[in-house]
Amino acid sequence: MHTMSLDVGSHLKSVRQMYGLSQRELAKRAGVTNGLISLIEQNRVSPSVSSLKKVLDGIPMALADFFTLDLAAKPQVFFPREELLDIGSGAVELRLVGGRLGKRSMSILHERYAGNADTGEEMLTHVGEEGGVVVKGRIELSVGGESRILGAGDGYYFKSSVPHRFRNPGRDECEIVSASSPPTF
Asked: What ranges in the chain are assigned the alpha helix state H?
């Protein structure tokens, strides 16, 4: 019989705490007694695969994710401004959140357009969708054959395969927070 090297009890406790659940709350969600959760976490009982699966369903988390989750190698969650990679050029600053992360499902950008700056004469096209909100200033967004000037608080969302272009029509800086999926950068 092959024995597992993972300390199931302390691992379950760490995962439960990571999700902000008390033993009682997890037990209620999983339909088991909180005594069972306590016994598992103290390694006083070794749960069967089916009872561990039932407990994890209360989180919810798959068995495979539970056994492969590396709690020691916590992924970076917070990114100070100086760590946001500037992938723009010239008068267009595009700061990518989590730029050094390996696999991402989306790109999040903090964009700044100096007065009269734009993304270029050529319209952009790429796979996916993108959206954002103007935080400060004004931006002229052209998507397909339509153009609109958006101000602070205005948002946009479109399929990125439609040709598009961003242009700051004024002298004041424009600031946008945007996201695209799949990641463009």
From this structure: 8-18, 23-30, 34-41, 49-57, 63-68
